[in-house]
Amino acid sequence: MHQRGLATLWASTVLLLLTGLWGWLSLQAVNEESLRSHQQMHAAHALANAEALLETTLAHLEQAYAADSLEGDVRIWLASAASSCPVGKAPPQWQCLLWPLANLPLPEWTDEDTSFVRLVRDVRNAPHRIQVMVDVKLNALHPGVGSRATVQQSVYVPINAPQPTIPLSNSPLATFAPLVLNEQVQSVDAPRCDPLAWQAVFGDLTPLQLKALSALQLRNGLSAASQVSRTVYWVDSPQLWTQSIGTTLAPVVLVFSAEACATLCPSLATSTQVVGTVFFQNQCQTSKMLNWQSGVIAGQLGVESSLAPDVKLALQNGQRGLTGASNAHAAFNFEWPEGVQATRVQRVAGTWKNAGF
Amino acid sequence: MVNLLLGLALGLNLLAAASTWAALQWRSDRQIVQRSQTQQELRALMDTLVHDLRRAQFQGQAKDLQISPHQILFTVNRNDNALRDNNECSGFRLNGTVLQTQTSCQPAVWTSLNDSRTLQILALNFQWECDPNSTSQGDLLWLELRSQATQEPVPSTWQRHVRLRNVHARMRPTSTSCTNAA
């Protein structure tokens, strides 16, 4: 009898212990579920902060490019640095910038020390397309301290313009007209020189924009010798041009500005070859184009005046080192999808992405 | 003798009560753990849906977003190039009681996201709500997922609104109609 009583006591104790254990396990399960809910809530909060910061950045970009877009562009990218670039996007092709968070109103509970806004762009192939990456972490004042979210969005900025669609024949070998001249005749009644040749070659792209693109490539370290070569050259100097630039795969644009042509336009040295587009801003004055060419141009030549008839004929016949190429405009023909205006900051379709949640 | 019988009766009563309590606790624990697992699985499914849907459509063309009540097809730009690569077609559909996601364009490959032996998806519904505001940050997609775990007697329904950041008035395909959210 005594043993039976002991067994009952023992069994009851074991059952009580098991019950306690199951109860504890249940509590654990409930706690874990609750923890997961909280983590999800914190991640959602971090994502909301990241989205808010992205929108703030885009609004600031819009404002910066609103008045004088070229000046705004220089101002924004002044603090660009190689150390700000993500892996695989290094200068001189890529330009990167960490936007100082002190200049942006941060959403509440955002950790200013570990969060960042990074701007990245390809200065050679798409300088008008900026990728904005926002990485946000919640700070110690939030129960979800350390929760992180990243979002990104690309935008077009108004620093260049789309090229007019030039009807080429269906042949894959079709080329642009190798020679573009401004045949405008100036007179006392019409003394102004309309940049007709410029418009024919560059469309809505302005000289200031092209000059800025050239300066941007130079500033970012692109050159004819760099691994990814420079493609835009704006020349203000009247010196003889002695550098061979451009390849069939990477044509260039070389512009001798009105400043370079102030007295006489510079000439290409005998041994030089330029693959791409060469343009002389000679202000409708044929006299500034005396003895200007001895090198070879494979692509397109634009002159803001007419030329002597024999020179013109020789150029058109390919007898003076000028040959056409189908991709002569590649250096400045940037991607502008239909419907996207080149006059203001606009989002690139389908580039919003998020990660981390 | 009376004391002995009384002790025995008390002991057996205690044992019976403890056994019942233990059995109840065990059942309850099992239920909680199973429910927690189901919740976790459903949450993972919803997260996958929401995460992918947020990035839907990258070229703004009609084929980049096709929404029907029980299926959604869209493209995402995974590698930041301007082309629609073969792994950039995505989508969700209900195939029987299995939720599937599309993982390639050509041939279309659909991958199951749940094991119907433990969790059955009974319904998957989408409704696209346009945001007519010109400064809109994206249209809304209402989605509903009705599921039933094998051990659960009652199905559960999850609903979420997802903001489609890449789909708004300026970049909205015209092939599918949306209802006005306003």
What do you see in this structure?
The complex is a heterodimer of chains A (357) and B (182). Chain A has 357 residues and is an alpha/beta fold. Chain A contains five helices and twelve strands. Chain A folds into two domains: 37-159 and 341-355, no CATH class; 179-324, no CATH class. In chain A, the strands form two sheets. In chain A, strands 1, 2, 3, 4, 11 and 12 form a six-stranded antiparallel β-sheet that branches. In chain A, strands 5, 6, 7, 8, 9 and 10 form a six-stranded parallel β-sheet that branches. Chain A is elongated and about 130 Å long. The model of chain A is unreliable at 168-173 (pLDDT under 50). With 182 residues, chain B is an alpha+beta fold. Helix content of chain B is 29%, strand content 34%. Chain B has one helix and nine strands, in the order H-E-E-E-E-E-E-E-E-E. Chain B has a five-stranded antiparallel β-sheet, covered by helices on one side. In chain B, 26% of the residues are buried. The model of chain B has no long low-confidence stretch (mean pLDDT 86). The A-B interface holds A 1, 4-5, 8-9, 11-12, 15-16, 18-19, 22-23, 25-26, 29-30, 32-33, 36, 40, 51, 55, 131, 153, 335, 339, 347, 349-354, 357 and B 4, 7-8, 11-12, 14-15, 18-19, 21-22, 25-26, 28-29, 32-33, 36, 39-40, 43, 47, 51, 54-55, 57-60, 64, 75-77, 80, 82, 137-138, 165-166, 170-171.
Could you give a quick summary of the protein structure above?
Chain A is of the alpha/beta class and 357 residues long. Chain A has helices spanning 2-64, 69-76, 196-202, 207-219, 309-316, and strands spanning 94-99, 116-122, 126-137, 148-156, 179-181, 232-235, 252-256, 273-280, 296-303, 322-324, 346-347, 353-355.
Total number of helices of chain B: 1
Percent helix range of chain B:
25-40%
- Element order of chain B: H for helix, E for strand: HEEEEEEEEE
What is the count of β-strands of chain B?
Answer: 9
Shape annotation of chain B: elongated
The percent range for strand residues of chain A is 15-25%
Task: Tell me the distance between the termini of chain B.
Answer: 84 Å
